[in-house]
Amino acid sequence: MDPCNFFKCLADETRLKSLLLICEAKQACVCELMEALKLDQPKISRHLAQLRAAEIVVCERRGKWMYYSLNVEMPDWALRTIAETAKKNAYYFESSLVKLVAAQSISGRCD
User: Fold this and answer.
1) Residue 48's closest CA among 34, 63, 62, 64?
2) What is the CATH number for 57?
3) How far is CA 24 from the centre of its chain?
4) What is the pTM for the complete model shown?
């Protein structure tokens, strides 16, 4: 993994918050991230596509929605960077995490 590309991906607020939310939740659907970040589907999907192209996240299609999780094949330094950032900066994305958890608790939300 190219460190320059990795950190460029994290330099965008939407990508960083999405990544931290995915890290904390272990996985998130596009529709859940839309709710958590109050952004539209094309914007969320575009940013997630960049994270996927950089091999930071992986995705799985379920019906019409894509579910994203951290790429566990990333180098240890990259995984540690994401985990430490989430752990030490909860204030940065806490309100979005509350919305994400609420969206995930609604049965059939992404159907």
Assistant:
1) 34
2) 1.10.10.10
3) 9
4) 0.93
